[in-house]
Amino acid sequence: MVSLADVKKAQKEIQETIHRTPILTSSLLDERCGMEVFLKAEHLQKTGSFKIRGATNAVKQAAAAGARFITAASSGNHGQAIAYIAGRMGIPAIIIVPEDANRAKVEAIKAYGAKVEYCGLTSAERIPRAEQLAERNNGVYIPPYDHPAVIAGQGTVALEILEQVPEADTIVVPVGGGGLISGILSAVKNSKPSIRIIGVEPETANDTFLSLQKGEITAISGTSTIADGLRTSQPGDLTFPVLKEHLDDLVLVSETEIKEAFRFLLERTKQLVEPSGATALAAVMAGKNEMEIKKAVVVLTGGNIDLLKISHVLEN
Ligand SMILES: *Cc1c(COP(=O)(O)O)cnc(C)c1O
């Protein structure tokens, strides 16, 4: 498991690159949820998501070990984050994206200074290509969640939360591959273990829920949620054991509940948060917690959404 010291070290490594994002509150939200809710605004983070934390820590570590070339296999927030930090550090990077990748996302990756290569439609096709390119060019392939430096980097969000909301009793976090939540668990359960950590998945991408139920990594196929950052088919080899040992609860939300949280954030708090980023709030708004919560920190993980898709998310 990543240690608290690893997360603190990551914080030092990345603090000049990332924003210390604010905590947002809304009395209307508190009333609706029957608890105090503190929104950790990672949608206002550099590159629009928390992924820059892990990406920065991993790229810096790779560069320190002599890597002169970086690859990643993601058209989403991880790909953008790797492109940004590699560009800023002057390290050449190639991001492998699916053939049907969204054009706006590809343009964002290029604008950060990385090259883009199209490959297949699945991550099973992209990852070997990214690994191969890294190997050929004396470089390093950086995965989106199953990597100790990535996990430690994501965990830095918890160090900020502990300082910003020291009286919080619960932290609610969306779960894709589990990099973010295992980083948060590594920081919190090694310092203030009484704080409960609740993971949230879409009902239609419930691989971690099923894996926890079975007690072993379990893959699903055909995830189709609107929360595209949570469409992983199974939890990671490094992340899953941390969740299995330390996670307090994992709850599921419906597509409608995610859309309701998205709408609330946009309409009432004026915050544009992508569906994946609104998923943890969806669980709190729908009262999915079994245990009573007084003060919850909800991580709004990202804000990158194709503007043309907003009306679709607002539909019921
Ligand atoms: C990647 C991502 C997640 C999920 O993070 P994992 O580390 O894969 O669990 C959640 N929200 C957003 C916006 C993301 O980009």
UniProtKB/TrEMBL annotation:
> Pfam families, alphabetically?
PALP
Its needed co-factors are: Ca(2+); pyridoxal 5'-phosphate; Mn(2+); Mg(2+)
Per the record, the coiled-coil ranges are: none
Instruction: List the keywords (alphabetical).
Output: Magnesium, Pyridoxal phosphate
Instruction: Give the organism the record lists.
Output: Planococcus notacanthi
* Domain (Tryptophan synthase beta chain-like PALP): residue spans on this chain: 15-302
Give the InterPro entries listed for this entry: Ser/Thr_deHydtase_PyrdxlP-BS, TrpB-like_PALP, TrpB-like_PALP_sf
What name is this protein filed under?
A: Threonine/serine dehydratase
Which PANTHER family does the protein's record reference?
SERINE / THREONINE RACEMASE FAMILY MEMBER, SERINE RACEMASE
